[in-house]
Amino acid sequence: MPNSHLDSDYFQPITGIINMKQNATGGPLYIDIYMYGFRSAFGSLHGFHIHTYGDLKEGCQSTGGHFNPFGKDHGAPVTLDLGNVQPDHQGVVNTDMIDNVASLIGENSVIGRAFVIHSGEDDLGLGGFPDSRTTGHAGPRLACCVIGRSEQ
Q1: % helix / strand / coil in the chain, to the nearest 5?
Q2: What value does the CA radius of gyration of the chain take, rounded to a whole number of Å?
Q3: Could you give the CA distance from residue 27 to residue 104 in angstroms, rounded to a whole number?
Q4: Are 135 and 99 in contact (CB under 8 A)?
Q5: How confident is the model at residue 152 (pLDDT cuts 50, 70, 90)?
Q6: 57/130 Cα distance (integer angstroms)
Q7: Rounded distance, CA 38 to CA 58, Å?
Q8: Which residues lie closer than 8 Å to 83 by C-beta, 6 or more apart?
Q9: Residues near 18 by Cβ (< 8 Å), separated by ≥ 6?
């Protein structure tokens, strides 16, 4: 869902679906991403993260900070930050990822949390900006969704 609380200079009508599958406890999490409505320049990168809360009452602003149950600096392999996604020339992201830290079960489950797409590239903690080591300096939140369950 697009972030309704975003300044009109940044607003993009992003929508789509993200499916996840985990075949075994502690096994890799397979993430299939299909989103469209990006208006950014072809080749631009957008930070893609799991945020702590699945609370959308204030748009993407109420999803809290990045979900980081292990207290690691941003960009570390165990921070549950998923890096960047890159829309094609039609504003579509159609990609998949494998994450070896996120889980659908257990104390640190991502169920009930939120995926958030940011306006800028995630610098993976290496950018030298004051917020690089906490947020990847990825900019405002463009769109978000609650991570839920389905039968399939």
Answers
A1: 5, 35, 60
A2: 14
A3: 10
A4: no
A5: low
A6: 28
A7: 21
A8: 47, 48, 97, 122, 124
A9: 31, 32, 33, 34, 35, 115, 145, 147
| Structural domain 15-146, CATH architecture | Sandwich (2.60)
Taking residue 88's Cβ as centre, other Cβ atoms within 10 Å add up to 13
Nearest residue to 145 via CA among 44, 39, 16, 36:
16
> Per residue, what are the HEC states of 32-51?
EEEEECCCCCCCCCEEEEEE
Which residue, among 5, 77, 16, has the nearest Cα to 46 in the 3D structure? 16
Q: So where are the chain's domains?
A: 15-146
Tokens matching residue 151: 């039968």
User: In this structure, how many other beta carbons lie within 10 angstroms of the beta carbon of residue 139?
Assistant: 16
Which is it for the CA torsion 98, 46, 42, 146, positive or negative?
Answer: positive
Q: Which of 3-7, 33-37, 39-43, 126-130 shows the lowest mean pLDDT across its residues?
A: 3-7
